Automatic annotation (TrEMBL):
Organism: Sorghum bicolor (Sorghum)
InterPro entries: ARM-type_fold (IPR016024), Glomulin/ALF4 (IPR019516), YAP-bd/ALF4/Glomulin (IPR013877)
Domain of life: Eukaryota
Matching PANTHER family: GLOMULIN (PTHR15430)
Name the record gives this protein: Aberrant root formation protein 4
Pfam families: Kinetochor_Ybp2
Length: 557
């Protein structure tokens, strides 16, 4: 809403003018009186004009109050904002106003946004503003207030006070949702896109100094979830679509909160995230379904079953739901020794045991973590704990031999994407410990790939590597695989009374292709030195190792 001087309100045929120099409080009282008189006379046009005047006065006062460098205006003195809000609350609380629905409707249409902006000021402004918004929610149509509040929330966020004003509006919206009596899903689909937009904006723009207000905003978003949960409980036949929406909303919020890179905010948000687990449980989500992503897929499919275009658009607002599923598991693992998450920790432990005993589910769980590791949105501390969880999932069993009997084809693209995500952490993490952990995870996951397809994965990683250092590391892994196969061939030779097939082992033959790729680049010419010296040295070492194996085998012959 533009910051303009209040316009004249009229009652009947008599215009009322306001002096621009008059204090805001005096002009507000005059405008409230004009509104009362217009409503008493049934003049809807005059009532509308007066309500817009009141809105302009409050909006302008809020802007002036926020400008700390300008102390000349009446609205900038201590307590001025609270005084204006109390004038409005006192007007609304009068018996004549309560019984005058025209006045309530006119003010409820235009005041939520400026009232929330004033409520973000210092002192007791927030309490008074909350009381005004609660009054509108209690005395006006819930459906109308839902639209009005969503429109107020769908405005650009102005830091630093924008966070506090949006908290007030979200709290009011949560109260409205609890008053909705029918067509729950329709109303929720109106509200949630706006709420999630506010959350996304807050996370992307918050800095350390906004920590307290940011946590208040996350708690306000949690109250929206509480309201939806009450809707689910109030339905005699529990609506599965509404439960799916609540679960996806919780996961989206977990992902958004986890994007806070400020340590103070991130620490305080731990409790906010664990509160969301109650929503997940009540929505039918389990840690097994979160680990593998199956619950998220089922919820999205449930909401996408309709061919309606608006349903497809609505599902798009939960674009971070898969991230949230993986993050919910990572957060629980991070705080598994915390009393607050004791139950969650126990449930996660049971799910981990089940996943570790099922090789198909183990692959699904490992590939889920790529959502956390590959994203630039999440802080390194979360990625580090994600690697810890991945190593636990991989386990210490002889997975190589077991996985040789598993159909790997359907998992290959996801495993490749997961390995690329691990590489990104290995190359970019600022802490040496995290980089080392990523390297261990990379080797572990590669070792889980069936030997018949492991070279294809490594070859794809080498072909898609843009870092000479990373390429060198991958070539060293190839050399280890050649050595492992050579030892296996030696053992087979002993078991077969000294008989060994002719020629190089299969892995060595494939490895020569990679050596040629590095030493004879596809674009022609010699390797680029010294920029690519690391990968050239690794390729030469690999070639030397293959030649040693070949000469040794020829000596045996």
């Amino acid at each position: 809403m533009a910051a303009v001087e209040p316009s004249a309100a009229t009652t009947g045929d008599a215009p009322i003018s306001y002096s621009p120099a008059a204090p805001y409080s005096a002009r507000l009282r005059e405008a409230l009186t004009a509104l009362s008189e217009a409503c008493d006379s049934g003049n809807s046009n005059a009532a509308e004009t007066a309500s817009f005047t009141i809105s302009d006065i409050l909006d302008t006062a809020a802007i002036v109050s926020a400008e700390v460098d300008d102390g000349s205006e009446d609205a900038s003195r201590p307590g001025a904002s609270e005084e204006l809000l109390r004038e409005v609350l006192e007007f609304l609380s009068r018996p004549s106003s309560i019984s005058n629905q025209m006045a309530l409707d006119a003010l409820s249409l235009v005041l939520p946004k400026p009232v929330a902006k004033l409520g973000a000021q210092m002192g007791r402004c927030r309490d008074v503003a909350a009381a005004i918004l609660k009054f509108f929610v209690s005395n006006c149509s819930p459906r109308d207030m839902l639209s009005i509040l969503c429109e107020a929330l769908d405005a650009p966020m102005e830091l630093p006070n924008g966070l506090s004003s949006f908290v007030l509006l979200l709290d009011a919206l949560a109260k409205v949702l609890t008053l909705i009596q029918r067509r729950y899903i329709e109303q929720v689909k109106v509200a949630l896109p706006v709420v999630l937009k506010v959350m996304h904006t807050a996370v992307s723009e918050c800095v350390e100094e906004h920590g307290s207000a940011a946590v208040d905003l996350f708690n306000a978003a949690h109250n929206i979830g509480n309201a939806i949960q009450e809707m689910c409980k109030s339905m005699l036949d529990k609506n599965k679509d509404l439960c799916a929406i609540l679960g996806l909303y919780s996961l989206q919020n977990i992902a958004l909160v986890s994007q806070s890179r400020q340590q103070d905010i991130l620490s305080a948000c731990g409790s906010v995230i664990f509160q969301s687990f109650n929503f997940l449980i009540s929505s039918g989500f389990t840690y097994l379904g979160l680990l593998t992503g199956s619950d998220v897929t089922a919820a999205i499919d449930k909401l996408s079953k309709s061919d309606a275009e608006e349903d497809a658009d609505f599902v798009e607002y939960f674009s971070f739901a898969m991230d949230g599923a993986a993050l919910s598991v990572v957060w629980t693992h991070m705080y598994d020794d915390n009393d607050m998450s004791k139950y969650a920790g126990e449930q996660l432990e049971l799910a981990l045991k089940e996943v570790q005993g099922n090789h198909m589910k183990k692959w699904e769980a490992i590939t889920m973590l790529k959502h956390v590791l590959s994203s630039i949105h999440y802080p390194w501390i979360i990625k580090s704990h994600g690697l810890n969880l991945m190593l636990i999932l991989a386990g210490e069993n002889h997975v190589e031999e077991i996985n040789n009997h598993v159909d790997f084809t359907c998992y290959a693209p996801r495993i490749f994407a997961t390995l690329k995500a691990i590489e990104s952490v290995m190359m970019a993490a600022p802490a040496a410990l995290v980089r080392k952990k990523a390297f261990v995870a990379l080797k572990k996951v590669i070792s889980m790939v069936p030997s018949s397809q492991r070279f294809d994965i490594l070859q794809a990683l080498v072909n898609n590597s843009t870092s000479p250092s990373l390429t060198a590391i991958l070539l060293d892994l190839v050399r280890e695989e050649v050595s492992r196969e050579s030892r296996r061939a030696d053992n087979d030779c002993v078991e077969d009374d000294g008989f060994r097939g002719s020629g190089l082992p299969r892995w060595a033959s494939h490895a020569l292709e990679l050596v040629e790729l590095i030493l004879r680049p596809p674009e022609g010419g010699p390797p680029c030195l010294p920029d690519h010296s690391e990968q050239v040295i690794s390729a030469l070492n690999l070639l030397r190792f293959i030649l040693i194996i070949d000469s040794r085998d020829q000596g045996r012959d």
